[in-house]
Amino acid sequence: MTFYPTDKIALFIDGANFFSAGRALNTDIDYKKLLEEFRKRGILIRAYYYTAIAEDDDYSPIRPLIDWLDYNGFTMVTKTARSYTDAQGRKRWRGDMKIEMAVDMLGMADHADHIVLFSGDGDFCRLVEAVQARGARVTVVSTVKTQPPQASDDLRRQCDDFVDLADLLTIIGRPRRDTAGALPRFIQGDEDDE
């Protein structure tokens, strides 16, 4: 990653997508170390984390993470995930955060020199292009070292720099806990949104 000491940096973490990439690499992310790493690389002006929370759910397994991030330097952006029944009668969840991320990234592009997007979702290609047109450099963090790869080829071509999450794990990763603590399906993303 190429950062300059005077770079104003903003982080945008697609919670569901980034969680899936970490899980595919059999690791958990240490968010405290993640913040520390990017504070070393420049002037960290904002770290956003986006996720959906189940509707009518008094307790969500992701709530402790949301609370910790909120108290430890992250700007949390959440919305209610809505349940629906698909054509096969299976219960599914919708909680796409792409619009929220797009609005915030475009707004931050005028204030940041370098934006780091933690997502491999190809739907962000046009957003990355628009942010670059405003003068900000964009680094994408995801992985292609899994089967299937978690990062879109189109997104990798569009960004200024691509960093494979597998290469950052010695800095920001920790061994994955058992699957009993896995996030529910609606947090992990819906295949309809990919």
Characterization of the model:
The chain is α/β, with parallel strands linked by helices and 194 residues long. The chain has one domain (8-193): 5'-nuclease (Rossmann fold), CATH 3.40.50.1010. The protein contains eight helices and nine strands. It has a seven-stranded mixed sheet, with helices on both faces. The chain has a two-stranded antiparallel ribbon with strand order 2-9. The longest helix is centred in the first third of the chain and has 11 residues, at 31-41. The radius of gyration is 16 Å and the shape is globular. The relative contact order is 0.22.
Question: What's the gist of this structure?
Answer:
This protein has eight helices and nine strands. The chain starts with 7 loop residues before the first strand and ends in a 6-residue tail after the last helix.
Question: Which helices and strands occur, and which strands form pairs?
Answer:
Layout: E1 8-14, H1 15-24, E2 27-29, H2 31-41, E3 43-54, H3 63-71, E4 75-85, E5 91-94, H4 98-108, E6 114-118, H5 125-133, E7 137-142, H6 153-158, E8 161-164, H7 165-172, E9 173-175, H8 185-188
Poorly predicted sequence stretches spanning 5 or more consecutive residues: 179-194
Give the overall shape: globular
Spatial ordering of strands, largest sheet:
5-4-3-1-6-7-8
Query: Any idea of the CATH topology?
Result: Rossmann fold
Radius of gyration, in Å, reads 16 Å
Helical content stands at 25-40%
Q: In terms of structural class, how would the helical and strand content be classed? A: alpha/beta
End-to-end Cα distance: 26 Å
Total number of β-strand segments? 9
Q: Which architecture would the CATH scheme give at its second level?
A: 3-Layer(aba) Sandwich
Order of helices and strands: EHEHEHEEHEHEHEHEH
Tally of individual domains? 1
By DSSP (H or I, 4+ residues per run), the number of helices equals 8
What value does the average pLDDT take? 87
